[in-house]
Amino acid sequence: MKVLAALLLAFGILHSNPACAQSELETVSELDIKLFAGLWFEVASYPAPFQSPDCSGTTASYTFNPNGEVKVWNQCYLTQKRKLETIEGRAWVPNPLEPGKLKVSFFAPLSADYWVIALDSAYRYAVIGHPSRKFLWILSRSPEMDEQTYSVILERVATKGYDLAKIRRTPSLAQALFHQKFY
């Protein structure tokens, strides 16, 4: 997992050049990190080279620190190996005038862009992207998301230049365990 996380950061650094992007990716104009903190469930994402395709029940937990940084703790259940995989890092907002443009690091001094490109007003869902549009995560406060909300999110990310054909639903932990038990 550490090697995969390092690949993520290298990818982020290589692809953070604005010339790689179609147009400037718009982020949220307001983000309250204290409200953003907590547990998020990955509902869907672009497949990423640093994230196992065998992951289910993927979560991201964010803890606000008094210094303004955020502790990041990601985990997923590896279905084939039947074990949890975790990684810890940190995130921060480099420019308070652009609160949706976070940086994330799992291996200092390397960091990558982690941009909040959509956010429910009650912080029930969030969409994380990258200026290159090569990475995308749809997060929810609950393990499952209703189809109407999911469809609205897909429409929003399509208008931001993301290819909907690349998005893959992330199985919940309950789905993975059910599949293991009965198949």
TrEMBL record:
Q: Which organism is it from?
A: bacterium (Candidatus Blackallbacteria) CG17_big_fil_post_rev_8_21_14_2_50_48_46
Keywords per UniProt: Signal
Q: What name appears for this protein in its UniProt entry?
A: Lipocalin/cytosolic fatty-acid binding domain-containing protein
May I ask which residue range the UniProt record assigns to the signal sequence?
1-21
Q: By its UniProt entry, which CDD domains does this protein fall under?
A: lipocalin_Blc-like
Tagged with keyword Signal: yes
Q: Does the keyword Signal apply?
A: yes
- Output the superkingdom of the source species: Bacteria
Lineage, uppermost ranks = Bacteria, Candidatus Blackallbacteria
InterPro entries associated with the record: Calycin, Lipocalin_ApoD, Lipocalin_bac, Lipocalin_Blc-like_dom, Lipocln_cytosolic_FA-bd_dom
Q: Which Pfam families match?
A: Lipocalin_2
Q: Name one GO cellular component term.
A: cytoplasm
Family membership, please give it.
Belongs to the calycin superfamily. Lipocalin family.
Q: Domain Lipocalin/cytosolic fatty-acid binding, which positions?
A: 31-171
What is one GO biological process annotated to this record?
response to reactive oxygen species
